[in-house]
């Protein structure tokens, strides 16, 4: 007799199902809670909160946005230890949010979502986890973040290496790096923080560079105690500093997003920084970008260039042919032998496809629809997937300002939408395809004039050059876009009407 399979474990229906307990997931829960919506379930795949800041604990990990701006405006921290805080301090701030706003009650830890599907009859989103659990919600928020899954490079022989392999987003703190022969693949945001730390302990450190980044000076200072005291006793002073930082970063858009005289000024600043720190002309030439500033992510560091010039450190710009059992072979035929390879190769960014299958009305697949590039309405909603909301959805990426500034606009839009669903007793709030198409035509037209689309390859673009990642404007413009919930752009299906049609 055939053994019957156990039925999946069902859980009570939530008003809001949130996937991910990083900044976006917790911030959305806070805003919902403040509006009196407390029937919330947060599904977190790990055993702790924090998202990318929990996972990225590599040596030197820090934020490249000032701490007073890389935090929520409604929960400012007066105790930042320095201008640009490290990942552990940012994770401490996230834990503060968790405890201060009593969010642990909503979180289901160790729940890795493997499928999300819309039940048209019930008007519910159903999330299935890898252990067979099923969680239902009238609405669902994708808050897993764009930088959540480590991206391993497609280099031949990567499985053949017999030494230690470490990815920057999954650091092995038990492995002793002291005196080892270490390779670092990648020269992006993670690499320029890792390399200076590894140079302090490695016997031999080799950095493999494909494309040199634009690097700016980092104005990082220890916060004096009087400053912390002032912020604690006069919170408005911290708000004023935050506003000044916001405006300063807004002005950077004129150099970063569009090709302007300020772009040339910023390039000269980057070139000055390089000349000041790297006296050797040949090394300087290898480290000089040959593309327009802003086309790729701009980095900030005071110690990356000096680290490359240490006696135990070497920069290699020959392309990698393959990884062998003992090390890395470059195209000119030389095999470099290592004890450990560090992959500072970033993340699998969902600008084409979804992190797990998402099924909408009539069985449509979002993964299939996004294969050639993700599209959404205001980065938040996708037609055919009612009551589903994205944080850091398509074309919401900032190139010049704090991600949390954009995130707050998204969270407030989501909360406004969910309140509307509840107050109007809607079964479904589904953006019209025509509104989504109009929005994306406008976005892509604006993107065509930006530095991101000026010809270089970056993780902002899909393989065929479609920019599904960045927002082509000021953070102020993005906030204005998200300020209004325009119901004319949506199809509204009331609960009563829905019950009559079943």
TrEMBL record:
Gene3D superfamilies (UniProt xref): FAD/NAD(P)-binding domain (3.50.50.60)
Keywords annotated in UniProt: FAD, Flavoprotein, Monooxygenase, Oxidoreductase
Matches recorded under Pfam families: FMO-like
Superkingdom field: Bacteria
GO terms of molecular function: flavin adenine dinucleotide binding; N,N-dimethylaniline monooxygenase activity; NADP binding
Signal sequence, start to end: none
Oxidoreductase among keywords: yes
PANTHER family: FAD_NAD(P)-BINDING DOMAIN-CONTAINING PROTEIN-RELATED, L-ORNITHINE N(5)-MONOOXYGENASE-RELATED
Name of the protein in its database record: 4-hydroxyacetophenone monooxygenase
